[in-house]
Amino acid sequence: MASTALSILPIAQGILNFDDSTLSFEPDTAFLSTTSALGVLGAFSPSLADLVADFASTIDQISGEITITGGVFDANLVLADGSTITGTFDAPATLTELAELAAITDGSFTLQGGILDAVVMTGDESVALESLDVASLASTFVLETINAIDATVPFTNGAFSFETSTPLGPISGTVDVAGGDLNIDLATPVGLLTADVDFGDDAVYPFSAPVPVIGSINGVVDFNAGNIVASLGPAGDVTIPISSISGTLALLDGIASLSAEVPVASGLPLVGNVTVPVSTEIELGPLASEYAAQVVQDLVASGTITDGLLTATVDSPLGVFDTTFDIVDFTNQGANFFAGVDGLISLGEGLLTADLTTPIGDVNNTFNLADVAGLLDVPLGDLV
After folding, report:
1. In this structure, is residue 60 part of a structural domain?
2. CA–CA separation, 372 vs 35, rounded Å?
3. Please, which residues bridge with residue 356 across strands?
4. Per the confidence metrics, is the pTM higher than 0.85?
5. Which stretches within 78-118 are classed as H helix?
6. Which residues form the domain of 270?
7. Same domain, 215 and 185
8. Strands of 342-348's sheet, edge to edge?
9. Segment 73-98, tens digit of pLDDT
10. Which residues 6+ apart lie within 8 Å of 68 measured at CB?
11. 250-275, pLDDT tens digit by residue?
12. Residue 329, SS3?
C-alpha cells in the first residue's frame, strides 16, 4: 500500500516556530480499555464509521436479549427489518486463542517522517504494511475533532480556560497565548497534553474597529510579539499587551472567533477613555491538524515483536524513550476480565437495560437507544 507523505506545513511554518518547542503527552492508560469512539474509527476507516452510524440509526428498533455468563454472550435479537440474530460468542476463549497466536507472533516496524512500515509474522502467515502515512491520519483525526467542537471559551489575561466537551469526551485546562508563545496545559479524554511553542512571524492578524467620534481604528493582533497594536491616527500607535486582555473565544466548525474589549487610551479630550471592540478569526482546525502532523513527522521509531513481546525505541524532540509491551499478557488479561462478566442486556421499546457484574464493578443502567450515536463518542468509563 503506497502513500505520499505530507508536505511541510505551509500554514504552521509561519505561525508557529517549532525550533525551540516542547511537547509533553501523558497518556491515560484507562483510555486503552474504553470503547472506540466514532471519531477515531472515522479517522482510520470512514466507510466502516458510516456503516456503524447507519446501524446506530435503527438500533432503537431492535428487541431481544443478550445473556452473558462467564463472558459468553448468548444473543437472541430481532432487527428493525424483522430479521433475527441468534448465536453465541465466547469472549474469554476468543481472547485466549488470540493470546496463543500472539505468543508465536514476530515482526518489526519503523516510523520516520510520519511514514510507518511494518511486517508481522504469525506462524506461516505474514502481513506487510508499506508506507502508511500516519502523519496524515493524525492530521485528519485532529481536524475532525476540532471541527466538532461548538463552544464559547472565556479568556482572562490572555489565557483561555477550557471546560468543554468533544466527540471523545471532556477537555479542560488552559491555553495561554499572551507571552509570544503558545502554552498548552489540557486534560483530554486520552491523557494530559502540555506544550510550549513559540509563535512565528506570520502569527499576526489585522482588525478594524469603529470608535465613536474618532472613527475606525485599525490594528493587528500580534501573537509573536505578545501585543495588540492599534493605530490612533495623528495620536500615533498604542501597544497593549495581550496579557492585559480578557474576552471570549467562540469555536465553531474549526474557526476560532476572538472577541475582546481592548482599552487603547484614557483621559482623551471629548471622548475620555477609549475601548476598542477587537474581533478576529483564526482557522484553528487546519492549524491544529498541521501541528499534529508535525509532531508525528518529528518522531523516529523502530521496534520488534518477538513471541508477542513488543520492544520499541522512540526518538522525539523531547528525547529517546524505550518501552516494552507484552501483547500476550495484555490479551490474557482481557480474557480474564470477560470471564468475570455476568448478567443480562435487554433491548426493547427503544431502550437498552444493562444489569451486569464485572471485575471493576456493577453496571445497572438503562439507555435510550435513540441516543446511541452519542454514546458511541463517550468513553466506557463514563458509563460505569
Report:
1. no
2. 13
3. 343, 363
4. no
5. 91-102
6. 204-284
7. no
8. 84-90, 72-78, 63-69, 342-348, 351-358, 361-368
9. 999 988 888 888 888 999 999 999 98
10. 74, 341, 342, 343, 344, 345, 356
11. 888 888 887 877 666 555 555 556 66
12. helix
